[in-house]
């Protein structure tokens, strides 16, 4: 771990300290995992398949509980899944964004304002009455993000949100999230294994064997991930 590149945790919107997590019947996934995402920044989480990235995001979102360690995040937290069809539940764009506000007991006027503001932020205001099924994958992901913005989320957690998108929508989405983080002062943690997406973040973490083994400059992390991917594909080749 390069301590010089890790921010002071007091300025961080997401802090994980010495986290330990194991599945009931499985191996330990996270073992002494620590990281801090500075407030108002866009960071990415890298690691090979099965290294625990999705598990860590679920812990951050409170969907799982760790055996030990500490998690602190600014609230509320919004989650964007890899597959938007697992997330969007209402028939139309506007209804889906409004659905996320049900627990806040707002007036119909406040709900309408929140929905319109959030859809404007992701450039989908004109799509408010469109059925979800008529949207592209990238547009669906933007509806999911609008849901988080409508709830006034401080932190956005995105688990491989571009995995099912074509290359153009993939880059559109990462650029849009970068812009939203800067314009709205959000903090985002984005899981990816796509090296080109690293060009848009402020920093990245590399997860390996249960803990963060490197953090900081996207370009340096990119080189390191490339080496790891080469080693992994070489050992696959040898074992097959
Ligand atoms: N629901 C589950 N029950 C038991 N083990 C799981 C479950 N989900 C994932 N795992 C295991 O946890 C480890 C980390 O998985 P995951 O967090 O999905 O990795 P990544 O997102 O980095 O590919 C893997 O060994 C995986 O098989
Ligand atoms: Mg995953």
UniProtKB/TrEMBL annotation:
Keyword Nucleotide-binding: yes
Keywords on record: ATP-binding, Nucleotide-binding, Transport
Every ABC transporter domain range: 14-234
Superkingdom as given in the UniProt entry: Bacteria
GO molecular function: ATP binding
Pfam families per the UniProt record, alphabetical: ABC_tran
The protein's name in its UniProt record: Energy-coupling factor ABC transporter ATP-binding protein
Organism: Trichocoleus desertorum GB2-A4
